[in-house]
Amino acid sequence: MENVSVHSAELPACNDSVDFYSPRSGNRTDLNCTHTSGYYDLYVILPVIYSIICAVGLTGNTAVIYVILKAPKMKTVTNMFILNLAIADDLFTLVLPISIAEHLLSYWPFGEVLCKVILSIDHYNIFSSIYFLTVMSIDRYLVVLATVRSKRMPYRTYRAAKIISFCVWILVILIVIPFTVFAGVYVNPFDGRKRCGLSLPNPETLWFRTSRIYTLILGFAIPVSTICILYTMMLYRLRNMRLNSNAKALDKAKKKVTIMVFIVLAVCLFCWTPFHLSTIVALTTDLKTTPLLIGLSYFITSLSYANSCLNPFLYAFLDDSFRKAFKKMLECRPA
């Protein structure tokens, strides 16, 4: 069995001849420890960045969950999907301190079971955001379509949104199962320390390429293509609706929700597209490892992590009901 660490961000010790990988991706290239100061900078900077993402993401997403569950007016179909998106992001930021600890210790002290759990949650985060946003895009398209045709949507209920969200959770869990199966603790042959990563069978190169293509297709190509088609059709419908003087325009509330979903989607793609583009680069080129490439790799990973803490700020800026609910939550009223 060959071992590929895909979650942790430990940096190599000097004079070790090791494989460098990009966190989350399993990208491996030969690395010679000839830039000690650069590695030390990453060793110091990465925990700071991850800690900020963890603190902001955990606080913001917990606030979103609390507001939606406690405020009666927040129980809408769109907010049900936002709730599940926040839960997925909260779950990831909740375990991020373990990744920080592993990075600082440069070995995995937490055992086999927790290794599988952490890697599963990490990979779940890769798929969950885009899948819940795909569902939200489908919902927005159906709302626009129904509005253009002046039809009601009796099937679009809060209960139906719960069922769909549950199905998304099950789907993503099934997608992540292969990573859970191959996740485990192994001893790094270069320094003798325990690591948490994917143990891929021989031929490792074939399995590595398969795992990258698997993630690229299911975690990016299919959902993003679906979203692009939906928004293209949506814009076409809206354009025709404006040309038709007899058609009713979308009311202000529906426009705001549609714009909010679109912006949340745009931010998600901004954070995740470099990660998936790096997959294409890893599959088609053989780049020489340099300090610049290493720094870029960790920047791409940090950018994908950052997506887990940005959505609450978008809701606060773009949705009046969220903003008002946040303010009420922060108010200290006497009993």
Number of domains: 1
Low-confidence stretches: 1-22, 25-37
CATH domain class name = Mainly Alpha
- Say what the CATH topology is: Rhopdopsin 7-helix transmembrane proteins
Terminus-to-terminus distance: 62 Å
What is the number of helices?
8
- The number of strands is 5
Helical proportion, percent range? over 70%
CATH superfamily: Rhodopsin 7-helix transmembrane proteins
CATH architecture descriptor: Up-down Bundle
Read across the widest sheet, the strand sequence of neighbours is 1-5-4
Give the radius of gyration. Answer: 22 Å
- How can the largest sheet be summarized? 3 strands, antiparallel
Strand-pairing-aware structural class = mainly alpha
**Which series of helices and strands comes N to C?**
EEEHHHHEEHHHH
Account of the 3D structure:
This protein has 335 residues and is mostly helical. It has one domain: Rhopdopsin 7-helix transmembrane proteins, CATH 1.20.1070. Helices cover 71% and strands 7% of the residues. The chain contains eight helices and five strands, in the order E-E-E-H-H-H-H-E-E-H-H-H-H. A three-stranded antiparallel β-sheet has the order 1-5-4. A two-stranded antiparallel sheet has the order 2-3. Strand 4 and strand 5 (194-200) form a beta hairpin. Helix 1 (36-70) packs parallel to helix 7 (291-318) and helix 6 runs antiparallel to helix 7. The longest helix has 40 residues, at 204-243. The protein is globular, with a radius of gyration of 22 Å.
Summarize the model shown.
With 335 residues, this protein is mainly alpha-helical.
